[in-house]
Amino acid sequence: MGRVSGKVALISGGARGMGAAFARALVEEGAKVVIGDLLDHEGMMFAEELGEDCVFVHLDVREYAEWESAVQTAVSSFGRLDVLINNAGLVKSARFDEHTIEDWKIVIDVNLTGSFFGMRAAVEELKRSGRGSIINISSDAGLQGYEAITGYNASKFGLRGLTKSAALDLGRYNVRVNTVHPGLIRTPMLAGMEFPQDHVALHRLGEMEELGKLILFLASDDSSFSTGAEFIADGGESAGLAHRQPAEAG
Fold this sequence. Notes:
Blueprint: E1 8-12, H1 17-28, E2 32-37, H2 40-50, E3 54-58, H3 64-78, E4 83-86, H4 101-129, E5 133-137, H5 150-170, E6 176-182, E7 185-186, E8 206-207, H6 208-219, E9 230-233
Parallel strand pairs: 1-2, 1-4, 2-3, 4-5, 5-6, 6-9, 7-8
């Protein structure tokens, strides 16, 4: 307990799924957390569940003014901001030759521009912290190409570049910037759906709690010498293709 005691974190897309798992992990280890989301009812209910160490703020990551408000909420509620987790994201599935201009714009606006907005709005408070950590949630799709998710692929690769550039610029202030690259994680949105993972070394989906432990590491001072780096939690998917061997008769 207490790995992030005294720290204050802001998480976009924090009302449910992975963002909620990150918030819970941080609060359990002593942090104060502001969760931002478009899902007002779910966000307020979740913040109430976590108690006095968590507050909710409405946040459309495409609106810079809402990011400024979210940062101010962290400071007014808890006195500081030490950790920013850019978790909000979306995917639009279509082959390249069928990917619409409208879908391209919204995916880039949410996944890439929204993350830049968050970083830009938070940077002065993170510098003031003297031990800031920005955690950008990318994807395996930020490491390798996939069919039929053109905009998502581009946004997640772009987030890697944004992260490395910011890490170089902000290191002098002891603000660290890293990306996390999950594979397929079991979230409530996947309930009842089948996703064979025989191509993945560990042959299974990841669990939100497993990813939460990685986020906790990056938010804490345990990762104090890590910046500009990719942290991969994909069960080995990006290592190459795995194939389940048939069970031996015995």
